[in-house]
Amino acid sequence: MLKEKFIRELVAEDIGRGDLFARISDSIEIRAYIIAKSDGVFAGREYVEVLAKMYDLALSWDIHDGEAFKKGHKLLLISGDSKTILSLERSILDMVLHASSIATLTAQYVEALKETGVKLLDTRKTRPLLRAFEKYAVRCGGGINHRMGLDDCLMLKDTHLKTIDDLDLFMQEVRQKIPFTSRVEIECESLEMVKKAMHAGADIVMCDNMSLEETREVVAYRGTHYPHILLEASGNVTLETIREIAATGVDAISSGAIIHQANWIDLSMKVG
Questions:
Q1: Which one of 1, 34, 97, 113 counts the least CB within 10 Å of its CB?
Q2: Could you read off the pLDDT of 30-58 as tens digits, one per residue?
Q3: Which GO terms describe its biological process (predicted)?
């Protein structure tokens, strides 16, 4: 249902009061295909398949979500009414372009972490109303979703911590009020804050914008005193730095860049 609602709104945005070409043209059966004009990793199939059912189009795929493609690869053949296909052309392309671009960049980060055992996480830095779609694209690229929203994990950031006088007491209240299965993550900028967070009972500690040396100190402290607590590193994460960060011994690295820094790849639709 969520995918259908998303697609209806996407199509309505483009068609408006009606496709002018559809108004003046006759319907014929046509076949169109999407071709790659650059290399990448594909995402968007789940959404295109829902769209095809909604608008009575037949699809023949030559790729799955998460698979790599090369320039010149014909990814998808679409058959159906000409008015329908031509009216939906941009909606289909925008979905697969957006998703595949995120998946492509995510896959590069995942490759940089290869054999480290460290997980790549996304963040809540998503475009308004596109969170589910963009986080789906991250999964297609091999990344792992961090929390989807404020309701599935309690994260205490620096802004939250400014409002808490006694962290130990606050955490006691937290355990009585949030769901039993929910985790608590506390953002820390220093080893001193890490010690307070771990003592208070955090499930996950985020090393926020720490240097490599500071992060290694946190990892060593965790290993000695709280080996059950997970460590996440965040801040200043790039393709050039991510492997160094992973080598500190953290469990996961989060990056908003895999979504908001993804440059669009090149895909095109052709008829014939």
A1: 1
A2: 999 999 999 999 999 999 999 999 999 99
A3: NAD+ biosynthetic process; quinolinate catabolic process
